Amino acid sequence: MNRVVIIVLAVAGFLWANPAEAQTSGTGKVDKLYILDCGQGHAPDESRWTVGVNVGKPIDISVSCYLIHHAQGYFLWDTGISDQVAAMPDGWLPTNNPANDIHWTRAKTLESQLAAIGIKPTDIRFIGISHTHPDHIGNIERFPSVTVLIQKIEYDNYFAPGKPGLRMPPGDNAPSFSKDHPVQLVQEDLDVFGDGSVMIVFTPGHTPGHESCLVHLPKTGWILLSGDAVHLRENWDTRRIPYFATMPADQRLQTLLSMQRMADLISFYHAQLWINHDKPQSDKLRHAPAFYE
Ligand SMILES: [Zn+2]
C-alpha cells in the first residue's frame, strides 16, 4: 500500500471514529455570553408547574436574559420582566390574587446591566424571544429599532384579533410588544448568523410558537437555553409537564416531543441545558458583569 493511500485511510478512520466531534465543534464566532438578572418570581404553590407534587409549597424562580457577543454583533435572548418593576417597591402581582399568582420583582433593570458592561440598546443587532409571555417580552420596546426574531405562529397568535391584551405592570410607558416593531418571522429553526454558532430551535408546546436557543462558546462549549420548554430541573428529569390537567392533548404531545428534541440535541452536541426559571441552577451560574467564553 503506498503512502498516500495510508494517509487517506488514516484521515477517513479519524472522521469515522469521531463523527460528533467533527460536526459539533462550532465556529468560534461567538466569544462571550453574559447572563443578565431579568427578574425574580415568587409563587405560593409550586404545583402550578409540578402537577400533583409539592402542592402548596412556595417556590422562588429566576428570570434570566442572555447577551451573546458574535463577530457580527450582539444577540439578546429574551428581555425579562419589565424594567418598570424595579421601581415598584412592592413588586408586581398581575392579577392581585396573592394566593394564586406569581409575584414578580426586579432587583435591577436590564438597561442598567447593559450600561454597566458598556452596551447601549442600539448596539444590539437581534433580539430573540422564546415566547410572548410577560416575563420574556417585558422590555422589547426599550429596543425599538432592534429586529426581533420570533416564530411566525407565535407572532400571529399574539396579535390575533380578539386576544386579551397582555398584562404588563401599571404605569409602564414602554409596554408589551408593538405591532410596529421590526421583526423577522421565523418558521421552525434558524441559524441566526449563518455559521451555526447561534441557532434558534423550534420547541412548541408551552406556547404554539415557543423556541429555544442553542449557542456555541469556544471554551464553555454548547449551551441550550431552554426558554420555558421546561421550567424546573426536576420537571426535566421526570418529563413532567406543567398545567397538565388543563392543557389540551395536542399541546401536551407537543411539549413532550419538544423535550425529547432538546434531549437529542443535548446528547448530540454534548450541550449543557440552562433552564431559565430554575433558581438553584441560576444561582450557581456567573452573572454579568462576569461572562462565559
Ligand atoms: Zn417564563
* Ligand catalogue: zinc ion
Q: How many structural units, i.e. domains?
A: 1
> Remind me, CATH topology?
Metallo-beta-lactamase, Chain A
Cross-sheet strand order for the largest sheet: 4-1-2-3-5-6-7
- Overall CATH architecture: 4-Layer Sandwich
Compute the CA-based radius of gyration. 20 Å
Assembly form of the protein: single chain
* CATH superfamily grouping: Ribonuclease Z/Hydroxyacylglutathione hydrolase-like
List keywords for this structure.
8 helices; binds zinc ion; Metallo-beta-lactamase, Chain A; seven-stranded mixed β-sheet; five-stranded mixed β-sheet; 293 residues
Could you describe the 3D structure shown?
With 293 residues, this protein is an alpha/beta fold. It has one domain (32-284): Metallo-beta-lactamase, Chain A, CATH 3.60.15. It has helices at 3-17, 19-23, 110-116, 134-137, 152-158, 233-238, 249-269, 279-284, and strands at residues 30-43, 59-70, 73-77, 103-105, 124-128, 147-151, 183-186, 190-191, 198-202, 211-217, 221-225, 272-274. A 7-stranded mixed β-sheet has the order 4-1-2-3-5-6-7. Strands 8-9-10-11-12 form a 5-stranded mixed β-sheet, covered by helices on one side. The model is unreliable at 5-20 (pLDDT under 50). The chain binds zinc ion. Zinc ion binds next to helix 4.
